[in-house]
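Researcher: I'm preparing a figure for a lab meeting and need a structural model of a single chain. I don't have an experimental structure, so a prediction will have to do for now. The sequence is pasted below. Please return the structure as tokens so I can convert it later.
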Amino acid sequence: MNDDLRLIYAWVKGSRERLFAWTESLPPKVYTLERPDFAYGSLRNVQTHIADCYRVWIGERGLGLEQYKSWIEASSLPDVPTMRAKFREIDGMLETALEKFVDMDAPLELILRPDDILKVTRRWLIMHPITHEFHHKGQMLAMGRILGHPYPPGPDTDLMLPFER
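Model: Understood. Here is the structure written out token by token.
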């Protein structure tokens, strides 16, 4: 079940790996360089925010897992290998959701606050952090250019190509 979302997420992981390869090529201090004029302050902090989005929407709200209620402390992820490991956890959580979620398009009510109910679907719960990740990837690429480390040119910077490995 959910083979379409599995394929989409495989493309997301491949695209994320490209970004990891780029961030690994940067001088180590550039990844964690704090700039108050950048969204979330640094490249590392943006990736931490992306991981938090997956954890909250899919882990906490979708799967109801308490361990995903707390935010990740960005300083606990000091480098790209540590961030990669955090995203391997996210990958496992997403695979669990794809196994457990049934009736992907049935209405689902999420209580955000006692007086704030959001009506979504399980498919939306999967797609929301994915689109959110790509939004922030664009911010990271702009930050890299500003820091003097542009993302390498290629056929596409958004999503890996369907037959690419």
